Amino acid sequence: MTTTFSSPSARGLVAVAALLAWPLAHAQGGADNPYGVGALWQGSDVVARSVLLILAAFSAGSWYVIVTKVLEQFRIAGHAKKASTTFWDAGTVQAGAGKLHETSPFRDIAEAGLDATRRHGGLHAKVDFNDWVDLTLHRATERVQRRLSVGLSFLATVGSTSPFVGLFGTVWGIYHALTAIGLAGQASIDKVAGPVGEALIMTALGLAVAVPAVLGYNFLLRRNSAVLDEVRDFSSELHAVLLGSSAAAGSPANAGAGVAATAAA
């Protein structure tokens, strides 16, 4: 039986699991190596193993965020392409919004603009119609920005703290290695190389976790900026369309009702 993963989160989990399975499989093959990660784990105490688990959790979380956010950005880029080809060809804003996918942020923005025109009454009528629509569309755009920014703070945290977590593991490992050497009374190179080398692996692991997180953070930040530019352009054009519909409706007092009627036509 074949299992299909349709959601971006599920596909991201599968990709992360594959990334984690590769080093685990090779670690089993290199279990006889007395100076490898496997030997480090077997000879470590609770503190050193906790550091390794923290770094593993940081790595898994970073790759999950990177994979899922890239998939989300590609999905929004696809929605932007569809909006540019189908939305503006519709006769009304409401008809154009209906042609967009339910999960499209561009549909959310269009529906927010329509809702703003319908609710421009009562106390809201004291606000200029132009400012009211602009405020509503700005809030809708900010919601898209907040959704795109989810997870970036985690990548920044991992990128800035993982080297120090690995360094802490190295210091802890060297301390115990030197203590063991002192108790043994021997300081030959064959006695020092193994324990100290295993401790230095902690620093390498910390850097191996931090570098992808930093690169992923910068990459996603640039991609988010490009995606948000398309969202803001759509919002600005929609703002102009709604104002044009309100001008055709007549007086500012009836602007909201006029735009709503035009959208429903």
From TrEMBL:
Keywords: Cell inner membrane, Cell membrane, Membrane, Protein transport, Signal, Transmembrane, Transmembrane helix, Transport
Cellular compartment(s): Cell inner membrane; Membrane
Membrane topology classification: Multi-pass membrane protein
Signal peptide bounds: 1-27
TM region positions: 51-71, 148-175, 199-220
Start and end residues of each MotA/TolQ/ExbB proton channel domain: 104-230
GO terms under cellular component: plasma membrane
GO biological process: protein import
Family (UniProt): Belongs to the exbB/tolQ family.
Quaternary data: The accessory proteins ExbB and ExbD seem to form a complex with TonB.
Function of the protein: Involved in the TonB-dependent energy-dependent transport of various receptor-bound substrates. Protects ExbD from proteolytic degradation and functionally stabilizes TonB.
Listed PANTHER family: BIOPOLYMER TRANSPORT PROTEIN EXBB, PROTEIN TOLQ
Protein name (record): Biopolymer transport protein ExbB
Annotated organism of origin: Scleromatobacter humisilvae
